[in-house]
Amino acid sequence: MATAVSKEVDVWAKARKAADDLYDLRDTFFPQKPDDKTSKLLQESDLALKLLDSIPAEQRKLPVQRATYEYLRGKILDVLPDYRKEAEDHLSKAVKLNPSLADAWLCLGNFIWKKGDLPSAKNCFNLALSKGPNKKILCQLSMLERRMAQDVENQAEMVEESIQHAKDAITLDVKDGNSWYNLGNACLTSFFVTGTWDHSKLMQSLKAYQNAGHSRAKRLASLASRTGDVNWNSLYKRATLDVLSEGLNKAVAVLGKVLLFVKHENITPLYFLVCDSNQSCFVLTVYGIRNDAIKEGDEVILLEPYFRHVDFSWKGKCYQFRSIRVDFLEQLLINGKALPPHQAIATSIYAQHKP
Fold first, then answer.
1. Are 99 and 63 in contact (CB under 8 A)?
2. Full-model pTM
3. What does the pLDDT look like over 111-140, one tens digit per residue?
4. Do the Cβ atoms of 171 and 192 come closer than 8 Å?
């Protein structure tokens, strides 16, 4: 009897590990050709599904077992970036069969976020959090609230919620670099949202980034090491911020990691805080795309960037930062791929009469 129970636990543990390994592959595998990553994920997800389906039917009879099966199947199907209704159906079944499955709520929230329904995604994250404190859920909720702040009037209030959830995640594990990094992004977003006058927020973000310490260094070092794996066009030379010339840099490409979106009143251009593979930060200015085309955490390749070193004074204070501008969609690759046409915004001219 004990042996049978042990085998049952083992097969479920293998299925869980296969699902987790898929997401590790998604987050760490960057081949020369982006399509190779998709093919690899499809291949490994098929194997994970076969392993899951190999669990005998008698071990899937109880509601708790059926819920776990639906959750793992939905999680495996959702590893690809494209929308798959089948994945949503399985995850929805899982939380109905066993509402206490926190990770199922988290996966469902991420899936709904992918669809663009941000309020429903937040509801899922809150339901996941109601099952018990979890730093991963808190960080995702913090990130989502920063994204939601882009489209609401009470931006500062929403960003403060993001900061609080980021702090709650750190309380659970003060040594987790990702949680500190998330807090840094939240405080930096608050600095920009409140008009860049509250320098305490800026200092809080810098301190959080420092506390991220070795974990952040490893993450950015990993980014640097992957620049050689990207399928660069031979017409472009890889470069980092420190070697760019003022103005247009022809036949040059820069790889960066998006830290956050900078909210402002105008429709265009869009501004992002980005860091390159040498851990140097800069402001990226982009024209002609929707504001949801680029997300926090995306990798961007900037072709023939226009570089400027900005130095100015305002209200008695001096400001210095470096900036890269791209004017056309063809100059921008996101996570190794060109932007789809529906993410483009047609150029318009507006006239306003002021008596």
1. no
2. 0.68
3. 999 888 999 999 999 999 999 999 999 999
4. no
